[in-house]
Fold:
Amino acid sequence: MMAFVHRFFDTSKLINLVLNISLLLLAVGAALLVGAVMIWLMDADPVKAYQALYEGAFGTTNSRAETLVKATPLLFVGIGICVAFRGGVVNVGGEGQMIIGALAAVWVALSFDTVPRFLENIPIHDFPHIFIVTASLLAGFLAGAAWGGIAGVLKAYFGVNEILSTIMLNQIALQLMNYLLNGVLLDPDQKDRVNRIPKTARIQDYAKLPRLEWFSDTPTRLHAGLIIGLALAVVVYILLWRTTLGYRIRAVGQSNRASRYAGINVKRQVLNAILISGGCAGLAGAVQVLGLQYRMQTDGSAAGFTGNAGFNGIVAALFGGLHPIGTIPASVFFGALLIGAQSIQREVQVPASLITTLNGLVVIFVVSSQIFIKRLTKRRASVPPQPTTPKSVPALQEEPTQ
Amino acid sequence: MPEHLLPTGHRRIDQMRMQGIVKKFPGVLAVDHVDFDVKAGEIHALLGENGAGKSTLMKILYGLYHQEEGQVFLNDLPVVIRSPNQAIQHGIGMIHQHFMLVPSLTVAQNVALGMKSSRGFLLDIDMVSKRIRELSEIYGLQVNPSTPIWQLAVGEQQRVEILRALYRGAALLILDEPTAVLTPQEVDDLFRILKQMTADGHALIFISHKLHEVLAISQRITVLRDGKQVYSIPTETATKETLAHMMVGRPVVLHYDLRPIEPGPARLRLEEVSATSDRGDEGLKKVSLQLHAGEIVGVAGVSGNGQRELAQVIAGMRSTSSGKIWLDNHDVTNHSPAAMNQHGLSHIPEARMTDGVIKNFTVAENFVLQNHGRKPYAWGGVFMNFRNITRQCKTAIKDYEIKTPSHETPIKSLSGGNIQKLVLARELSRQPRVLIAAQPTRGVDIGASEYIHHRLLEERTKGTAILLISEDLDEILALSDRIVVMYEGAIVGEVKRDQADIRTLGLMMAGSKVPV
Structure:
């Protein structure tokens, strides 16, 4: 039995994984405990509050669906963050990349106001639908990648700090969205109104991502974006750990000097990392439009469209250990917190912004638990197990010791 | 002057005795019931490989660690030393391998650093300077107290360290690998100073792994291996061979039989190559060099005289400012590291941990650092072929006797010697035409060093052209067919192996032009 386990798992890896997960849960528990004290200080019942949180996030079929809907953009952004951070690029431009991706996707989707004849002639079931959705998603990916790429070129070739440039690009993306939604992309129906709402026209049915009707008997807003996100997690996992591109990105993220020595083009890999990362964020925006909102609308703020997913995705990725697969449960967890926040407010009259605080607490506890893990493993690693090769040590104990 | 006082006016330590010292770290017994002692007026050398426990033992004496068992006695009284400060109060000083000096401050300021001033919050630097001059005179340590540290040569900086310890009243001085950074002439100076100190009644502990130095300077030698005391002997009855045997635990070959071979055609040619160093000055000045198939050319020199730049320029990691580099009659000047690899260059980099490997990558991932995108390690340059990587890496682990739990262990948890063996295995696995070996055995224990030397000689026999850059003159002398000496970025001399002697090399390393 043990031999079997040894064959398929590196036991030390398994131990590390279990250690990691249990510490993570411990950190979350500690954060919730501190949060409970805060709720109690607000004269509310923490037990009730957390019950409301849980019920709000998982209590009904619809709440479960909403949790997953909320988790979907976090997942996309988070997967991208895994690539960026593994490549040593701190991409905090998820918001801007989401917006640009959504703009491109909605533009492509709207440009198909009728289904072109040549698409209908191809004898594949539902081909026009597949084609238009794919083209829109692709546009979202490429636009997000290009937006990230600006920061990537600035970092790789001009040494501009990517944290600054991506934050700035978020602002530019926001204003670009406001400009376009008030201008060329404005819904024709709104054009002649006096108090017009800056939003695009609704996309046609054949440009929409399908809703996942098998999830429940009653209709929910859960859409195929989630499935695409899950697939993307697997693809990016393979990319990072099974391809030469992923090897190079990780190598550059770990050590510029060793990568240079190895003949890896460091600048190009920095650019690659942020291109992929921006592309994933762009997809997040595209999926929000094609799967959920069916149009783009602005209230003048970035969060009005993204719901802060560009930032919360970073948190999810960190919580998921910067691993695309780990980001899946992490996104669901944060999605649940965000959905549950609303019912906390309803049930126990605690402001929903408490959940933002709770988010912050979780991050702090998780990050410090990571440091704890590092210390722990360092201590174990500092004692290298030294299997003695039989050749090198003929005993010498009988030699003169004076 | 009373018998028990040193020339510095401090009390001397007639005898220091460590008895039955045991120190455990999680999972290892670092020091295992070791007895060690030193008397006033003698140098007791502590010999052992990396990880043998010699630094741990000394750190216990200096108060940095605390022992689980055993007792330290000073002048036959049991003492407990909990911190370096307490050690200094007891008259124990330590000179670390890496100097603890602030470069921008003067000698006197460095000596005063961290000490209580006699005038409270005000610094009485004149008093400190006066005292430094007195001490310099007593021990023959010429140092000007008002010179900033950065203007001093390495040997002089070491004297400042010794002065500082004496200033604080050290009667017993621990010297941790004090000769590692010195030229042969500076080593002679240091030894003169050490002899003067013992004559004056100091007790000295000399940590080293260089056998000839230990034999030259000490009165007694203790060898540690795997935390155990395996050998203690008066120096006059010790030989290099037995000492090496004791350190490693098996007989060690100290001299290699370099069969002369007819060098083949020139593989690597440098024509008046210059390059800028990291500091921005001319790190490499018009260096011309030829490297033939089947020969080892040693590059000797004190560290920081252009050796690093030389290796990097050839490997494509640093661009030249002028000059040409030819590899097999191809002009490869300023080619990228990847292109140099393709031309058949392998490079064992000096900075093993930062350049040579990626610490958090596994042994297997590090094994394919350059070749990860090529057959047989990748399919079509896109997907990694882990089956082949694992197989080749396992073969290398076996062939090169690399001690690692598995090929999936992060390389950072291996010992320095084993990491270097993996780098060597990787670089030789590409069957290079030219090999740059920069400090191939620095920080590597004797057993692994010997192994690496054998591999280099094997490559030489195969006809590889090898450039061996080392600060260890013994290594250069043992392996090289020709030796060039670098000083301030230029090659100042070249000698054939059979004409080389350590004196002239030392003079050249210190910058004197010696007619060859």
Observations:
- The first helix of chain A runs from residue 2 to 8.
- DSSP finds 16 helices and no strands in chain A.
